[in-house]
Design a protein that fits this description.
- 38% of the residues lie in helices and 0% in strands.
- By secondary structure, the chain is mostly helical.
- The protein contains five helices and no strands.
- The two termini are 24 Å apart.
- The chain has helices at residues 40-57, 65-82, 95-101, 109-114, 138-144.
- Bound molecules: iron/sulfur cluster.
- Residues 71, 87, 89, 104, 106-108, 111, 117-119, 121-122 line the site of iron/sulfur cluster.
């Protein structure tokens, strides 16, 4: 059984451990510690966005909803603090400049062009960690991140 651990920017870092090789390890798979809890309004906005974009792009949420939840909260935190949903799974020297530039605002250019989401928020069906859902509730987000 594969072990999946969401390290998220949210609190630790984004990491995956699995018996099988993880999907496309990325040197960018790191997240930044969230400084503040995102507002519920922004979490809800990013939750709805994620559901809509998954359906539109034909991608699915991770089989481990905690991964999805952490990324959504990371996006919401950036929306609150930067005014834009900057990808939470990368390190930036200047987050404000990156948010203004837009390349890594969700959905980022790699996702839009090649369906590459290194945060594992949007997974193509062939991904080992793809679940079968394109929906997540606010309650699920709260429950799966309650101890983070
Ligand atoms: Fe980050 Fe891009 Fe995935 Fe959005 S689509 S969570 S910006 S990697």
């Amino acid at each position: 059984m594969k072990a999946l651990q969401a390290s998220t920017s949210y609190n630790v870092g984004f990491g995956i451990s699995a018996a099988a090789p993880p999907p496309r390890p990325s040197r960018h798979r790191h997240v930044i510690l969230a400084q503040v809890e995102p507002t519920e309004k922004s979490v809800e906005i990013m939750r709805k966005f994620s559901e809509q974009y998954a359906r539109r792009s034909g991608t699915y949420f991770c089989v481990e909803k905690g991964v999805t939840s952490v990324v959504i909260k990371g996006l919401a935190e950036h929306k609150d603090t930067l005014g834009a949903p900057l990808c939470p799974c990368r390190h930036y020297d200047d987050k404000y400049a990156e948010a203004q530039q837009g390349f890594w605002n969700c959905p980022c250019v790699p996702m839009r062009e090649r369906k590459e989401c290194h945060c594992m928020l949007f997974l193509t069906p062939d991904n080992d960690f793809a679940g079968q859902e394109q929906a997540i509730t606010l309650e699920e987000i709260k429950e799966t991140t309650a101890n983070m």
